[in-house]
Design brief:
The protein is of the alpha/beta class. It has 11 helices and 17 strands. It has an 8-stranded parallel beta sheet. The protein has a 7-stranded mixed beta sheet with strand order 2-3-4-5-6-1-17. Helix 3 (about 100-115) packs across helix 11. The longest helix is centred in the middle third of the chain and has 20 residues, at about 100-115. The N and C termini lie close together (about 10 Å). The model has no long low-confidence stretch (mean pLDDT about 95).
């Protein structure tokens, strides 16, 4: 039997601490022997289709195949499924809502990267793009450190105001809305950018020394949030260097392998240093990897079995 887990199921099951532990274990585990693939295809109009396979993590007896469709004008913009399979025989263990899995794994992995690269005393947070991924970055980051202020900007001013109010109240910190990205980052020590932008929103002149910038939007060809001069002058950490050069932030800025200081795996394993000095600008710019889908899906599946959550369906019946 296959367990079907919809968005409300996943949101009732997932815990940021448990998920970040699973992601941390994945980052520090030995890389999988099988090369993962990430394929993106444009659809007619404004959509795109993405497939990530297989998701593999050392010690997890399962693998994932994820298929997404992205439509920036829709809510949610991401639609699709994650298929969780038994590693030994291929049995379909669960089918999960991919929008929820993707937001949680992307946002919480970004929280790990942000915390690892930011100055120890960095507490003034700016969010550019008040969507699902930013929600999870902020939830995860607040587990790891205590923000003292929050500034939010979004193309939808009402959505920005709602995001600022909710998270300001949750964190017990002053929050405000800025009219545009350049205004929003004034005084920021941590900047989270999660948008659909196809032009740079921030350049080197906009970011103060010592700031940590996390950019989540440049995950396929044509999408860009940070200018080449900002990336060239920063210490840049990615989740996968070849992918970052092929389709991530480095690719869209015309930069290459030598412009990356390492990966988050390298950093968390202690193979490369994170922030070298307090005055440098650091950037975490992930593309998103298949094993991260497995880390979240396996965590959710085990929690669902324990809690008796989800509907069963027999695809072979």
């Amino acid at each position: 039997m296959t367990l079907l887990l919809k968005r409300s199921d996943l949101e009732s099951l997932l815990d940021p601490d448990d998920c970040m532990d699973a992601l941390r274990r994945g980052f520090t585990a030995e890389p999988a022997e099988v090369t993962a693939r990430r394929m993106v295809t444009r659809l007619p109009g404004t959509g795109s289709a993405t497939a990530l396979l297989p998701g593999l993590v050392e010690g997890v007896p399962a693998y994932t195949v994820k298929v997404n469709a992205k439509f920036p004008g829709m809510r949610p913009a991401l639609r699709g499924v994650v298929c969780l399979h038994d590693l030994d025989g291929g049995e379909l263990l669960a089918v999960l809502d991919s929008a929820t899995v993707t937001a949680w794994r992307t946002g919480l992995a970004a929280a790990l990267g942000t915390h690892a690269l930011a100055r120890r005393d960095a507490e003034a947070v700016t969010v550019i793009g008040a969507g699902a991924q930013s929600e999870l970055v902020l939830r995860g980051l607040s587990v790891l450190r205590a923000p003292r202020s929050l500034t939010v900007t979004d193309l939808d001013a009402r959505r920005a105001a709602d995001f600022a109010r909710r998270h300001g109240e949750r964190l017990g910190v002053p929050s405000s809305v800025a009219p545009d990205p350049r205004t929003a980052v004034k005084g920021a020590e941590i900047v989270v950018v999660a948008t659909w932008s196809r032009r740079p929103l921030l350049g080197a002149a906009d970011i103060a020394p010592g700031t940590q910038v996390t950019s989540l939007g440049a995950d396929e060809h044509g999408k860009t949030e940070l200018s080449a001069d900002l990336l060239r002058g920063a210490r840049v950490v990615v989740d996968d260097i070849p992918l970052a050069v092929e389709m991530g932030a480095l690719a869209t800025a015309g930069l290459g392998v030598g412009d990356a200081s390492g990966t988050l795996r390298d950093l968390l394993r202690g193979d490369v240093p994170g922030r070298v000095k307090d005055s440098e600008i650091t950037v975490y710019a992930p593309v998103g990897l298949p094993w991260q889908d497995l880390a979240l899906s396996w965590t959710a599946y085990r929690a669902a079995l324990e809690a008796g959550v989800g509907a069963e369906f027999d695809f072979l019946g």
